[in-house]
Amino acid sequence: MTATVAPGDLNEFCTRCGRSLRASSSVRRGYGPTCVSYLHNARDNADLSEFHPWQADKASELLETCGLVPTDHPNVYRAVSSDGSRTYLSTTDGCTCKAGQYRVPCYHRASVTMLRATRKTRRRRARAPR
Ligand SMILES: [Zn+2]
Ligand SMILES: [Zn+2]
């Protein structure tokens, strides 16, 4: 095993499904190839009516840059703040960021909502990638 990148920079496991990632492109992205395709649909599948459109934008950005990582608790995610200096704990109905403490909808929650929405689509058969 040759590690050329600091462990903290790598995502060993898929952010969405938790499977271990092998392809280096997946590791960098933080999602397996199938889950990336789900992410692209996340915004359409999620009910983001309580969030502003700009929050939905930030939320997709957060997801695509792996700014949202699962924790040991299945419904709780760790969201990285926009300057990368802090992390918050977010669920679909709460967040430890400043806005969240005032029960104001924040884009961290929007991104959890989006990520969770992709899970529901599992029922539907995904188009075979090969
Ligand atoms: Zn995955
Ligand atoms: Zn928040």
From TrEMBL:
The keyword Cell division does not apply. Residues 77-117 form the SWIM-type domain. Transmembrane segments: none annotated. One of its GO terms (molecular function) is zinc ion binding. Keywords: Metal-binding, Zinc, Zinc-finger. It holds the Pfam family DUF6011. PROSITE patterns: ZF_SWIM. This is SWIM-type domain-containing protein.
